[in-house]
Design brief:
The longest helix has 16 residues, at 18-33. The chain is α+β, with helices and mostly antiparallel strands and 148 residues long. Strands 2, 3, 4 and 5 form a four-stranded antiparallel beta sheet that branches. Helix 1 packs antiparallel against helix 2. 31% of the residues lie in helices and 21% in strands. It has one domain (4-145). The chain has four helices and seven strands, in the order E-H-E-E-E-E-E-H-E-H-H.
């Protein structure tokens, strides 16, 4: 076990919308330049952001599990929903994972459900405020993000 973020999708999209890609690229570029993230914990290549995939990890001992969102991921729960997760152990790249998940939730709406071992009113509060202020993505009311 460990501190983890989870997401399920009713249906997989064909691609990540262009506006979401633009925001995610900005977030990841900033974090990469600040040396918070890279491709893998032991690979200093930049993170990946394409129409189909977002992939990154923390650096060295500050990395944990790789965050990977892929529209072609086909792991299904018994309910028929697509399921994935990322354990971050609350290492420094955790806030970047939260930001990306908020963007994906905003982009995919009710088809994308997000949950976390952290509290959306505690561990997520600073990130939620930043995403509302900087990107105008509504996160202040749980219903708007359909967060459990």
């Amino acid at each position: 076990m460990g501190y983890t973020h989870y997401w399920t999708e009713k249906k997989k999209p064909d691609a990540i919308p262009a506006q979401a890609i633009s925001i995610i690229k900005e977030i990841l570029q900033d974090a990469y330049e600040k040396k918070i993230i890279q491709f893998e914990s032991n690979n200093s290549d930049p993170p990946i952001v394409t129409r189909e995939e977002v992939r990154f990890n923390g650096i060295g001992e500050y990395g944990h599990e790789t965050f990977c969102y892929n529209v072609k991921d086909d792991f299904l729960l018994d309910t028929g929903e697509h399921f994935s997760f990322c354990k971050t152990a609350q290492k420094p790249y955790d806030t970047i994972v939260m930001k990306v998940l908020i963007v994906l939730k905003w982009a995919f709406g009710d088809d994308f459900r997000l949950s976390s071992d952290g509290s959306f009113n505690d561990e997520w509060s600073d990130v939620r405020e930043e995403m509302e202020r900087k990107y105008k993505i509504p996160t202040g009311i749980k219903r708007k993000l359909n967060i459990r």
